[in-house]
Amino acid sequence: MSRDLHRPFALDSVSSELAEHWDLPDIGDDSNEPEVNAVNRQRPVEPEPEETEEAPQPLTLAEIEAIQEEARQEGFDQGKADGHQQGLEQGRLKGLEEGHQQGFEQGLEQGLAEGKVRIDAKVAQWQSLLAELVAPLKAVDDQIEHELVELSVQLAKAVIACEVKTQPEPLLVALRQGMDALPSKGQQVVIETNAEDLELIQQSFGEQELTRRDWQLQLEPSLSRGSLRLVTSRSQVEMDLATRMETVLQGFLARPRDPVSEPPYPEFSPEPVSQEANAPESASAEVVPDTPASTDTADAESKPEA
């Protein structure tokens, strides 16, 4: 037993296979690992001595003023920076808004000006086209107007001629007007007329009245119905029916009349719309009653007798 204790240690083949290499432990200072003693027990940690805090010294007036000044300056700088940033943002927004408004107004004004030029060009073009359309219509209106006037004149003459054949008033009115047109009164008057009117005058006045007025009836076949010729020793007066009708119709056509009701032409047309489109109605309505009682023939021709 004692021999074994003093015999040197040697590894057999089995132990050498099981043996592992062992590195030396790090003996450096590692403050993070707890210190242990020889028996691998942690040494008790000695408490560190507590640091005694010194009581703060009271601030002096100068230090207080310095702190206040520093705080004021810091607040001023911070407010200035914030105000500058806010002012830049507000100025940018306001400038953007004003620029947008100004640009909008300028664009609107420019657009209106350019639009007006284009509109004026289109209006001129349409006016030219309308003028080309209106010109043929105006020519047709003028032609229709002329034809209506001619028709109304012929209609009026036909109505007057029929009135003369059926009523004695037109002839008697012409006789009275012719007597008034004679330059001297109280002398013998020879009344020349056609057979129908001669008989009509005899029936209207009678022989006794004709003798009292010193009127002498004389047949003149060349005179038309409604026409008279008054002859005295010094003058004669022609009371031709065609001349009287022409005088009345010319006076009717020459006088102004109210505008007719018709669709207006475009405003650019320089020529006024004709006002004689209603000539047939007016001629038939006015010429007939004016014939027996018209005073326009009072200025009948008066020729001195040779």
Describe the structure in your own words:
- One of its GO terms (molecular function) is cytoskeletal motor activity.
- Keywords: Bacterial flagellum biogenesis, Bacterial flagellum protein export, Cell projection, Cilium, Cytoplasm, Flagellum, Protein transport, Transport.
- This is Flagellar assembly protein FliH.
- Its main location: cytoplasm.
- By secondary structure, the protein is α+β, with helices and mostly antiparallel strands.
- The protein has a domain at about 140-255 and about 275-305.
- Helix content is about 60%, strand content about 5%.
- The chain contains seven helices and five strands; from the N terminus they run H-H-H-H-E-H-E-E-E-H-H-E.
- The protein has helices at about 1-5, 15-20, 60-165, 170-180, 195-210, 240-255, 280-295, and strands spanning about 190-195, 215-220, 230, 235-240, 300-305.
- A five-stranded mixed beta sheet has the order 2-1-3-4-5.
- A hairpin with a 3-residue loop joins strand 3 (about 230) and strand 4 (about 235-240).
- Helix 3 (about 60-165) crosses helix 7 (about 280-295) and helix 6 (about 240-255) packs across helix 7.
- The radius of gyration is 69 Å and the shape is rod-shaped.
- The N and C termini lie far apart (about 210 Å).
- Mean pLDDT is about 70; it is low at about 270-305.
